Amino acid sequence: TLLLIAGGITLGRLLEQSGIVKEFSANVPFSEMNVTLSLFIICFASALLSAFMSNTATVVILIPLATAIIPAPSTAILVAISASFGIPFVVGTPPNAMVFGEGGVKFGDLFWPGLGLMVIGCLIVSLTGRAVLNFVGIP
Fold it and tell me: What residue spans define the domains of the chain?
């Protein structure tokens, strides 16, 4: 687990230092989109990636990209919160793996409710997250 986290941190730093993050944010038309829609896409990407890999690695990779697209301190926090919604797959969280390992639970039993929770969670974060963080003093 520590090696996966270290690899994710390294990959995130390499993406930032190589200029890939800046190039991606300049060429993808997020600036033409509504901020809420852009935030939802970023939050959903965070949740989707964390369904397959470590939450920490996902956040470290996506925060430089997300803050280049939406330059606000709240963006990093919302990306980190959204990584917790990566639950539709067995590998997404240890409790899913434990329940699946006991038997009697099929892939669809986790996937469909988990996908719904992921979408709803990302919607809530993208629609209300900036306002809540702004209320507590984080712009």
Answer: 2-135
